[in-house]
Automatic annotation (TrEMBL):
Annotated gene: LOC111471393
Gene3D superfamilies from the UniProt entry: Acid Proteases
UniProt record similarity statement: Belongs to the peptidase A1 family.
Name the record gives this protein: Aspartic proteinase PCS1-like
Active site: residue positions: D77, D288
Taxonomic lineage from the root: Eukaryota, Viridiplantae, Streptophyta, Embryophyta, Tracheophyta
GO biological process, one term: proteolysis
Domain Peptidase A1, residue spans: 59-411
Species the sequence originates in: Cucurbita maxima
Alphabetized GO MF terms: aspartic-type endopeptidase activity
Signal peptide: 1-20
Pfam families assigned to the protein according to its UniProt record, in alphabetical order: TAXi_C (PF14541), TAXi_N (PF14543)
GO cellular component terms, A-Z: extracellular region
Amino acid sequence: MPLSLLLLSLFGVLFSPSNSLSLSFPLTSHSVSSQEASLSLSSKTKSHGKLPFQYSNALVVSVPIGSPPQQMDMVVDTGSQLSWIQCHGKVRRKSVKPMINWFDPYLSSSFSFLPCNTTLCRPRIPDFTLPTSCDPTRHCHYSYFYADGTLAEGNLVTEKFTFSSSFTTRSLLLGCATASTQNRGMLGMNTGRLSFISQAKISKFSYCVPDRTGSDLTGLFYLGDNPNSAKFKYVNMLTFPKSRRSPNLDKLAYTLPMKGIRIGNNKLNISPAVFKPDPSGAGQTMIDSGSDLTYLVDEAYSKVRAEMVRLVGPMMKKGYEYAAVADMCFDGAVAAVVGRRIGDMWFQFENGVEILVGKGEGLLTEVEKGVKCVGIGRSDRLVTESNIIGNVHQQNMWVEYDLSNKRIGFGVAMCSGLKA
């Protein structure tokens, strides 16, 4: 269903081929807890915008929103569509939790609620997990659920992304959450029509995820061209016709033609069909910056686990399971030995492309103090039939989303402390 003319007139272009602006922004710092990450805005040059991020379990950028701009911490999520920020009004200020990065609509001259009579506020719009509705103030209300059970709900609004006084988007649609189960907002980056990149007409973006075991957890995020892309290996994305109706298929995700998994010199005996969507959509393999762990369907997970048992089985924690999804776990004291025995892990794609997704102890992620797990979970525990490549297997590499050419680029890098 097309957007209303009102909304179309509001959506603006952020980057365009004729844009010759060269803008820079100072680094800002945000305190983080062990379960959070924050990001700061750096600079934008003639061909690309640069945003460095700090990392724990999420990739988060600090984005300037509103007029004048308020710096909003937002999780970069290539697995979801709607962007939203944490909102409050003046009456809520005294009850705000200090860990939450709030946006104050009263301080922005460009903030506007979406009225109920727009196309997007009609029930059964497929862009939202629950039907939109009209609240008592005649503003459009939304609710958005995620696969991990988290929720954000509030009003749909339009607001500008104000990168500088001379470089500002027109108003884009986003959510103004008044209730959520997260401390940060969300920057929706999938291929849906309401995602940030779709509305701002950004055809390319990339990020470099730092090693989470390092002392410097700052990486880098680009909007537009990446100067390192000449060295990237590219994998063509799988796309699906809009007419296809499959209950387990996410047509808006970044779907990759994965072929297999290699651990050390041993290519696991996994049928390539396991990584391809069947007629129902089950088996789709997606790359998702918003997922911490990687998830595999049963056949693939079982083969990986069997190889781990062969290599390091006696050192596994008996009867331990993390978050009911991952059971290849070890005491931290043996992590170095475990890493040496496992070696490298590679994900294999079409045309012979192999991507190193972890080596040695770097294959393990700390899930609680003194416990490390291979960063792979069972996707059936998420009530999904998909394979998801999470950010734990995107460490120390550039990942570029090239929408114009419908491909994903990968480039080995030391991402910790990377400078623009």
